[in-house]
Amino acid sequence: MSWTWPDADRYHRERLEKFHIDHAASYAWLLQNDPRVPSDIQAQWKTAGRHRDEFPDNNHWPWQIYVRQGRRIDGRARVTQHNFIIDEKTGRTPKVEHPIAIGEHSFDVHPCHDRRFAIDDRWMEGVLWFPKKASGPAQPGQVP
Q1: What is the pLDDT of residues 1-42, one digit of tens each?
Q2: Residue 86 gets which letter from DSSP?
């Protein structure tokens, strides 16, 4: 992940894009060729590669990389990771004074370690939300 993407200038974004492409290509090469990788995994990865019919004018790489959460909106407050972590003392996420909007969106993340858990007979993996809706009266600033 690149935390610098939202504020980066064109030159820095080009460097980040090259880094990500080099990383993806190097990782695929490692899985295909490194002798420490089990042969069955190597064989599976040797069938992987860039599609010959896609992006032929760009060495078969997409014209731009996919960047999630690549924008920041500044206001009286900025949403950060801190806003989504439940405080053990209060049992809730931090309050924001006089919010102008409240939204609900499941953050879709890909954790570095296994975080699967079952809720209502559904396996949840890679999410930072609890799949039950909040209840109670509407608060100032909520948009129905």
Answers
A1: 467 888 889 999 999 999 989 999 999 999 999 999 999 999
A2: P
| Span 59-97, pLDDT tens digits | 999 888 888 667 666 677 777 778 878 888 988 888 877
144: Cα separation from own chain's centroid: 27
* Token couple for 77: 């407050």
* pLDDT score for 93: 85
Q: Which residues span the domain enclosing 46? A: 5-58
The pTM for the full model equals 0.52
Q: Which long-range contacts (CB under 8 A, 24 or more apart) does 90-98 make?
A: 98/140, 98/141
- Whether 19 and 54 map to the same domain: the answer is yes
Total number of domains in the chain: 2
Specify the residue for token string 């954790």. 111
DSSP 91-137: TBPPP-SS-S-------B---SS---EEETTEEE-SB-S-SS---S-
- Please report whether residue 144 resides in a domain: no
Query: Are both 123 and 79 inside the same structural domain?
Result: yes
